[in-house]
């Protein structure tokens, strides 16, 4: 028995390592976006990120993309929408948010994405919900409201929300829409999917970057701006996606998906250590509510495998 269990244990350890690295890269995205403030503007950062990522992916995935070209052409509109919303739109909104709110707030907001997915699935597809899912949704909603109001009851009652939190609400909605639409994902090799969506994100980002560059808000990258762009292109955009897909293949989507809940935790720790941001009591309460709500919503009823 031990001899048979050893390969499984080794596979699990590798999968866990890949998934933890994924959450570190994703958590670092918010910190990198905060470090970009004043060194490269959000639209330009998104454009540069996806131009770099597309160039790297072209080398890695070019042959597979060419082999799948006929299937890609048939599904081009859908692939374009995926890249425009989940890749370009999400990052434009997230990097814009970081000009107006903390990296900790952004990290906790990202934990609320499953709540938005839950809401869209119910609204569009009338997905059946359980009482536990409803309670979990409400807990996550309260947690997000706590972050948006900075723990202030007066702001919460008055529905006062700053621009950064509004951008993050948009970012979460865009990524949730992308995630829900993935149910229509064509049967394509992951390399072809990544390259097609990176190309879409790059093209969609160009007009926004151009308009920002011509405006007073445009900031051409300096050395720190270029380093941030390189990090976001290589680690969150490519490595994290590849590691997560590999982790799903190794231990399944249900177990791999639980690691996403580490993103706000790791992002918060990095924001404190690298940026010197203050982790307040309201952040702790919000994180417990959001992650606890997601855990409750995703927990299977007794008797289900």
Automatic annotation (TrEMBL):
Domain of life: Bacteria
Residue stretches making up the EamA domain: 14-147, 163-296
Keyword Cell division: no
Annotated localization: Cell membrane
Regions annotated as coiled coil: none
One Pfam family, short name: EamA
Statement: the UniProt record of this protein carries the keyword Ribonucleoprotein: no
Keywords: Cell membrane, Membrane, Transmembrane, Transmembrane helix
UniProt-listed InterPro entries: AA-Vitamin_Transporters (IPR050638), EamA_dom (IPR000620), EmrE-like (IPR037185)
GO cellular component: plasma membrane
Bilayer-spanning residue ranges: 14-36, 48-67, 79-98, 104-125, 132-148, 160-181, 193-211, 223-244, 256-275, 281-297
Membrane topology qualifier: Multi-pass membrane protein
Protein name: DMT family transporter
The species this protein was found in: Oceaniradius stylonematis
